[in-house]
Amino acid sequence: MIKNPRTRRTLSLILLILGGLMLFLAPPNEWAGAVLVALAIALEIIGAVLGRRK
Fold first, then answer.
1. How far apart are the C-alpha atoms of 23 and 29, rounded to whole Å?
2. Do residues 36 and 27 make contact, with C-beta atoms less than 8 angstroms apart?
3. Which residues, in sequence order, are CB contacts of 41 under 8 Å at separation 6+?
4. In the predicted model, is pLDDT for residue 54 greater than 70?
5. Of 7, 13, 5, which is closest to residue 54 (Cα–Cα)?
6. Tens digit of pLDDT for each residue in 10-52?
7. Are 51 and 2 in contact (CB under 8 A)?
8. Quick one: pLDDT at residue 44?
9. Angle at the Cα of 51 (from 27 to 12), degrees rounded to 5?
10. What is the CA radius of gyration of the chain?
11. Would you say the C-alpha torsion 20, 14, 38, 29 has a positive or negative sign?
12. Where do the TM regions start and end (predicted)?
């Protein structure tokens, strides 16, 4: 796990932004869109968890 708080916060912010972009740019195709939305939600959760750890 990443111990440096500054690096962890930076990585958290990058993951949150990447997840938001993936949610915004997900194609309307059923399967591809569902997969991208699931990946985006996973990135958002990982980013939020990394940002909250002490």
1. 13
2. yes
3. 19, 23
4. no
5. 5
6. 888 888 888 888 888 878 788 888 888 888 889 888 888 877 7
7. no
8. 85
9. 45
10. 13
11. positive
12. 7-25, 31-51
* Residue 23: both structure tokens together: 């949610």
Q: What is the 3-state secondary structure (H, E, C) of the chain?
A: CCCCHHHHHHHHHHHHHHHHHHHHHCCCCHHHHHHHHHHHHHHHHHHHHHHHCC
The two structure tokens encoding residue 34: 């569902």
pTM of the model: 0.70
Q: Which amino acid is at 25?
A: L
Determine the length of the chain. Answer: 54
